[in-house]
Design brief:
By secondary structure, the chain is mainly beta. Helix content is 3%, strand content 54%. It contains 1 helix and 35 strands. The strands form 9 sheets. The protein has a 4-stranded antiparallel sheet with strand order 1-28-27-26, with no helix packed on it. It has a 4-stranded antiparallel sheet with strand order 2-3-4-5, with no helix packed on it. A hairpin with a 5-residue loop joins strand 6 and strand 7. The chain starts with a helix and ends with a strand.
Length: 422
């Protein structure tokens, strides 16, 4: 009996082992101007924006960055692209919101009449549908929504101060962070917003949700001392658990959060006096540790997939993340049969999780196909030990529509439908 138990314990330890090779490498941006945000539509094509009307574009995964002419000299705080042609940049002053339909070759100002600032978050769930947060200085922030690609805007929420950031896990569920410990939540695509209060003195900023229930927010405190700067929820924001705290003699807080995959994520730890650090989690945000301390203050963060990510900041800083992960996650159960579960969320935009189970050590392959039967993505293709797993499917580079994912392992074949809505 003892030998059997020993074998089981050794097997558990082997299953929980994760071998990870990751790094952040400085890229050549071609500018020393501060960059505030970065966004990619696939591993090769991406954009960054910053002060002085700066918009940069890469078509080779960040090896080269080329400046785009916008015709404006105000700073840009946020950049979002829906595909290779259609994208938006949002100004930090004077309410500038620019749109391009030709990959950045030309831009049109489609901004609504804004009182002062418009850097409080922007998110488009499709080419036509999106939300933007605006505000006059530190008060009277509003959330506006468009149904026609920015031609007209309707006020959908008013009454909170200084909205900092916005994130949607799918076309319906979204969150926005604001000062005064305020978190705003929508479950109908931004038509209506409710207030979730975390704490009066917190300046909320970074927000990232995997799905409608599981997510994280980051922020800072108005005074110095030891205080939480990252919180996690598993019930859609009804309850929050502090998962990372820090002691500081200056203002410090988390401004952006991003994940390469469901377990591995990073957060920008911003400091009021200069360069902060990148915090890292390897367990879905439950615990965090300092990973990288850059020479320049970082401001923007984005991951295209498990092996490509970017962080941008002051002095034209662009860091590229290169990660290769060979991980076997400890199974949450010991399955007795092969199984392929329905993805969640579904419909989704732009990413979703797929769970599958193996009752024995097997080679498993999970592929995604379009309606014509063409393979568009291979999610898993390797030997796995028995257990229950989750894989993340990021469909940023795909167009809206119905897709199918198929699992084959041993003599098991499973297929299910998923719906991408942008």
């Amino acid at each position: 009996m003892k030998s059997t138990i020993s074998v089981i314990m050794i097997a558990v330890l082997m299953l929980s082992k994760t071998v990870i090779a990751q790094s952040w490498v400085q890229q050549t941006s071609g500018t020393d101007s501060s960059l505030f945000d970065v966004h990619f539509i696939d591993p090769n094509n991406g954009f960054a924006c910053g002060v002085g009307g700066m918009v940069l574009k890469t078509t080779n995964g960040g090896i080269n960055w080329n400046p785009l002419s916008t015709g404006f000299t105000d700073g840009f705080q946020i950049v979002r692209f829906l595909n290779a042609d259609t994208g938006f940049v949002c100004g930090t002053t004077n309410g500038i919101l620019l749109k391009t339909t030709n990959g950045g070759s030309s831009w049109n100002d489609i901004g609504p009449t804004l009182p002062d600032h418009s850097n409080g978050g922007m998110w488009f769930t499709s080419i036509d549908t999106g939300c933007i947060a605006i505000g006059s200085g530190y008060s009277n922030s509003k959330i506006l929504k468009t149904h026609n690609g920015g031609v007209t805007w309707d006020t959908v929420y008013a009454g909170v101060n200084w909205i900092s950031y916005m994130n949607f896990s799918d076309a319906y569920h979204g969150w926005a962070t604001a000062s005064g410990g305020t978190i705003l939540k929508t479950t109908d695509g931004g038509n209506n917003w409710t207030v979730l209060q975390l704490g009066d003195n917190y300046w909320m900023s970074g927000v990232y949700f995997f799905d409608p229930n599981d997510g994280l927010v980051g922020g800072g405190f108005q005074t110095t001392g030891t205080f939480p700067i990252i919180w996690k929820t598993t019930d859609s924001g009804n309850n929050w658990l502090p998962v990372f705290a820090q002691s500081s003699s200056v203002w410090i807080g988390v401004s952006k959060i991003g994940f390469a995959e469901i377990n591995i994520g990073y957060a920008i730890n911003a400091v009021s006096t200069g360069a902060g650090s990148l915090l890292k989690t390897t367990n879905g945000g439950t615990t965090w540790a300092v990973e990288v301390t850059p020479k320049k203050n970082l401001r923007g963060l984005f991951f295209t997939d498990t092996t490509n990510g970017y962080a941008v900041g002051d002095g034209g800083t662009i860091l590229k993340y290169s990660g290769t992960t060979d991980a076997v996650h400890l199974p949450t159960s010991y399955p007795t049969a092969f199984a392929l579960e329905q993805n969640y969320p579904n419909p989704f935009n732009p990413s979703t999780s797929i769970e599958y189970s193996l009752p024995k050590d097997s080679r498993v392959e999970i592929e995604v196909f379009d309606m014509l039967g063409r393979q568009v993505k291979t999610l898993v293709n390797e030997e796995k030990t028995s257990g229950t797993y989750k894989v993340r499917f990021n469909a940023t580079s795909l167009s809206s529509g119905v897709y199918f994912y198929r699992m084959s392992s041993d003599n098991f074949f499973g297929i299910k439908k998923l719906v991408l809505i942008k």
